[in-house]
Every structure is written in C-alpha cells, then in structure tokens.
Design brief:
Chain lengths: 339, 219
C-alpha cells in the first residue's frame, strides 16, 4: 500500500542544511496499522508527510497504492491526497466553523452536492460518537472530541489510508485509549490502512501490528510488534520497549542476586499460547531441576500474551541441557544471562 | 449661547463629508489592500504559491508608500488626482490620496491577520488536496475573518484621522471645520466640538469593530 525506497530528505532553511532522513525504506501492507516510533527530531513527521507528499523526498521513491508520486502532476497529487486522510497532534480544526462544517470540508472541496454531504457527515458523526455536536464549535469540545472530529473529517472522502501524526500526544491516557479504540474500529470496519507516528510505546503496543523504530533519520529496527517487543535488538528500541514491558530485571532484585550464588540465570520468552503453558512444571518434574522464579512479566500485545521469566536454575548439567532442548522444541526463547 | 460662527447645518454637512470620504476610500482601499495582502502572504518564499517576483515588487512598494506622510502624499499626488477626477480640489479629489494612503496600510494589516492563521490549518487543507485558491477561500480567510475585521477597524480609524487633513485640498469634513474655524479663526467652540465629534466617531467605529469581531470569533 505504501512503499518508501531509500528516502533521503534534506531541508534547506536559511542556507542551513538539516538532514531529516538518511536512506529510509519501509513497506506498509494493506490493512496494517503501522507504527513509527522515535524520539523528538528523529524524522517521524517528515517520514509520514512524504506519504501524502506534503513533503517531497530529496531522493528516493514514494509509492502509494502502486503510484510513484514523483511522476504525478500537482493536479493528480491533489486527487491522490483525497485518498489519504490525515490527523494531527493539535487537531488543526477550523475554529471559525462548526463541527458539521469541519467534517464536510473535504466534500465541499470535492464539490459534492448538499444532500450527499449531509448524509455522509451525519454518518461520520455517528461513527465517531459526536452526532449531538454537529452545531458546536471546536472550542466547545474537549481534546478527545476534537480528535474525533479530526478523524471524521479525515474519513469524509473515503480514504484508503489514514496518517496519524502524534494523534494522541496531546491527550490524557484515558482519552488516548478511546481514540486508539476508534482507530482500531476505523481499521476493522472500513479496512483503512493506518500509519501512525508516536513517541509513546504504549500506543504502538495497543494498536499496531507492525512497528519501525527511528533514530536520527534512520530506521534502526522494524518488524512485527510482537517480535520487536519480544526481543528488541537496538538500545533505543530496548529503551522504548522498557517503557511498557519490563524485559530487564529490576535493580533491587539484581542487587540481591549478586549477593547470592547463582549457578544459572535464564531468561525465557514465551509468546501466545506458549506463554500460558506449564513450562515451569516440566522443568521441575521432567528434568528434575531446582527452579525459582526471580522475576516475571506478562504483557498483552496484539491480543496475545508476551511472557518473560527470569529463572534461577540449579541442577545437573546434563539435565539442564535436556531442558534447553525441550524449551527449544516448545518454541520458547531461551537465553542465559548474567547479573 | 456660544460665541461661534458655525451653524448646525455646517456640522451635519461636515459629518456627511467625512463619512463619504472615509466610506469611499475604505471600500476601494479594502478591496485593493486585501488583494495585495493576500498576494503578499501567498507569494512569500515558503507561502502556498511561492512567486518571489510578485513578492519582491509588492513588498517594497507598500513600504515606500507607507513611509510618505499623508500630507505630502496629498500634495505629491495632485497631478495624478487631477488626471483621474478632473479636479484637484474637493471631496472626490481627497479620496484619491486617501485610497493611495490606506491601501498599503490595509495590505499590511491583512498580511498580519492572515499570518495569524497557523501552519497547521494550511497543512490540514493541503492534506485534503485543496487547491491554493481553496486553501485561501475555505481555510485562511474564514479563520482570519475576526482578525481582518479588527484590522479594518484600525484602518477606518486611520482614515478618519487622515480625512481631517483633506481640507488642504479643499475637501470638507469634520477635520476641515476644526482647521478653518477652530485653528484659523480662533473659534474655540468649533475646535472643541469637532474634537468631540471625532472622538465619538472613532469610539463608535472601534466598538462596532470589536463587537463584530467577537461575534465572528464566537460563532
Ligand atoms: N520545514 C523544515 N525545515 C527545516 N528543518 C526541518 C523542517 N521540518 C523538520 N525539520 C528538521 O528535520 C528533523 C526531523 O524533524 P521531524 O520530522 O519533525 O521529527 P519528529 O517528527 O520525529 O520530531 C529535525 O531536525 C527538524 O528540525
Ligand atoms: Mg513530529
């Protein structure tokens, strides 16, 4: 649906060059909720603005729905933009117009008839749960409601893609949750592909199926959310994952462990059904190992469970080796760690 | 009762003259000034239709005219005025320099008002595939409307002040009474009452403008 190929973007302002993107490639498939996470200034906004050509790449290809955007005329690009909705951190609603008029705007721009506009806007306001606010003005609405209007407006022209630039960053956690639920509904019911940008890993955790981690204009890691959350490779990814899933042993437990004699400290990582399987019993009963749980964490991601166990294991080397074998067969990721 | 040579009729006529001059020059100045203001904003480097040449021509012209004091503008424009209205004295002759005076001022005020519309609004418009004309018409102008009304209020008040100098070219108006009777003939009553009338006119314009702007901004 969206393909970015080796994108470089250099901004030139007042003769100062800023390199915002350094060879970024990614692919977003139809139906994905693709998350891009990174710290401020990583180049996320630049990246997402390339998709609807608000920003042109200095080099590289942007292909949306099979069309290479650089080949398109200004007129064609405007048509393509109508197939791509966008919502923003600060909502960017017209303060001088009612909620109804705001949502109707994309249809007015496309010169749709009054009756058609009315039907569509009424339907959209119902979809986002704001039917009673049609005649209100944006400044009478809460942040969450404003973002709902933003979503309704973005959906007005029946887009195939929805771009979200920090759409929940100005909202409190509870409102964020409700907006994320709404985005999921947009994805499910309308089959709209979503690309969202955030600096909060919890947002990725709650709605995305794929994620790309950005740092200083580069994608340092990308993959399925379960993979990246399960075993982030890059330090920055690890830090992001840490904010929602404790994959490391807390410091106070580490201190206590250091005082003890521990022969083997193992980190087990289980995803999905495995997470709930009685692996622990097997280690104790079948392999006669002495197992104590040092630290454990379970997180729900994408409706599956990701479980991380830190186990202190004592026993015969041969038994341990047999146990590792067993874990491998069970598709449990296993890693010996030191404190 | 008062020691004055001035009649009520003269006052009424003078107020009528002031409104006529201010009204005409405001109307034309607003049309041209708004167009120039929009042009400056959109053709600016980084604007929605960058067109450096238009910007580089308009911008200094506006600055140059704005730096000429109105009284000098009136005199300097006499030949031009005569070629347009056929005479260089009277109310109609005063309107020409008033328009030339107020247009660049309005252009600047409009520019400022339009620039108040945040880049986010324009970004949203462009993300919807709006044409540059649609961006201006459906987004920037409605969002700036309240502020534009306040700008025009300021411009109108400036015009009231400037029109008082129109007596120089034989035009009427409230300011003219102040000069001819109050200043030249030491008629303190004329002087005092014209000042009061001017104060009232300015107050009414300002509070009407404020009220309008508030109405627009709320709803
Ligand atoms: N219009 C612009 N002109 C110049 N530099 C810009 C512009 N937009 C972004 N940048 C620079 O590009 C880099 C990436 O910015 P951005 O894409 O906004 O990052 P993020 O959204 O991840 O915070 C930053 O260093 C920023 O200063
Ligand atoms: Mg950003």
């Amino acid at each position: 649906m969206i393909i970015l190929e080796d994108i470089h973007k250099v901004y030139l302002r007042k003769k100062v060059e800023t390199t915002a993107l350094k060879g970024v490639s990614l692919q977003v498939d139809k139906g994905d909720i693709f998350g891009v996470i990174g710290y401020s200034g990583a180049g996320k906004s630049t990246l997402v603005r390339l998709v609807n050509y608000l920003e042109r790449p200095t080099s590289g290809k942007v292909i949306v729905d099979g069309q290479l955007l650089s080949d398109r005329s200004a007129h064609e690009l405007r048509q393509i933009k109508k197939d791509i909705g966008m919502i923003f951190q600060h909502f960017n609603l017209l303060e001088s117009k009612t909620i109804y008029q705001n949502v109707a705007m994309p249809l007015i721009l496309s010169k749709k008839g009054k009756k058609e506009i009315k039907e569509r806007v009424t339907e959209l306001l119902a979809f986002v749960g704001l039917s009673d606010k049609a005649n209100s003005y944006p400044n009478e609405l809460s942040g969450g409601q404003k973002q709902r209007v933003g979503i309704a407006r973005a959906l007005a022209s029946n887009p195939k893609i929805l771009l979200c630039d920090e759409a929940t960053s100005a909202l409190d956690p509870q409102t964020t949750q409700s907006i994320l639920d709404l985005l999921k509904k947009v994805n499910n019911e309308y089959g709209i592909t979503i690309m969202l940008i955030t600096h909060e890993m919890s947002v990725i955790q709650k709605v995305c199926n794929k994620v790309a981690v950005m740092e200083e204009g580069e994608i340092i890691e990308q993959g399925s959310v379960l993979d990246v959350f399960g075993h982030p490779k890059h330090t920055t990814s690890k830090n992001f994952v840490q904010t929602v899933v404790r994959t490391e042993i807390p410091a106070n437990i580490k201190r206590k462990l250091a005082e003890r004699e521990v022969s083997t400290l193992a980190k087990l990582e289980m995803v999905g059904d495995h997470a709930t399987e009685p692996v622990l019993q097997a280690l104790i009963n079948t392999f006669h190992l002495d197992v104590s749980v040092v630290f454990t964490n379970m997180t729900e991601i994408q409706d599956t469970t990701l479980a991380i166990w830190y186990l202190q294991i004592e026993g015969k080397e041969s038994d341990k080796r047999a146990a590792w074998q067993f874990l491998e067969e069970q598709n449990v990721r296993y890693e010996e760690v030191t404190v | 009762m008062f020691d004055t040579n001035i009649t009520l009729n003269q006052f009424v006529e003078a107020i009528g003259d002031t409104f006529y001059m201010v009204g005409m020059s405001l109307l034309l100045g607003t049309i041209i000034g708004t167009i120039f203001g929009i042009l400056i904003v959109v053709t600016k480097p980084g604007g929605i239709i960058p067109f450096p040449i238009v910007y580089m021509i308009l911008n200094p012209i506006i600055n140059i005219i704005r730096s000429v004091p109105f009284i000098i503008l009136i005199v300097a424009l006499i030949p031009f005025t005569r070629s347009i209205v056929g005479t260089s004295i009277g109310n109609n002759a005063a309107i020409v320099p008033l328009i030339i005076f107020i247009t660049p001022f309005i252009a600047r005020l409009v520019e400022n008002s339009l620039l108040e519309v945040g880049p986010g609004i324009i970004e949203a418009a462009e993300s919807m595939g709006a044409t540059p004309f649609q961006v201006i018409w459906h987004f920037i102008l409605p969002e700036a409307f309240g502020s534009l009304i306040l700008s025009l209020t300021t411009a109108t008040i400036s015009l009231v002040g400037a029109s008082a100098m129109a007596g120089t070219v034989g035009a009427g108006g409230v300011g003219n009474i102040a000069i001819v009777y109050g200043y030249q003939r030491f008629d303190s009553f004329a002087m005092f009452s014209t000042v009061v009338i001017l104060i009232i006119i300015v107050q009414v314009i300002q509070s009407t403008g404020n009220k309008l702007a508030r109405m627009i901004r709320r709803n």
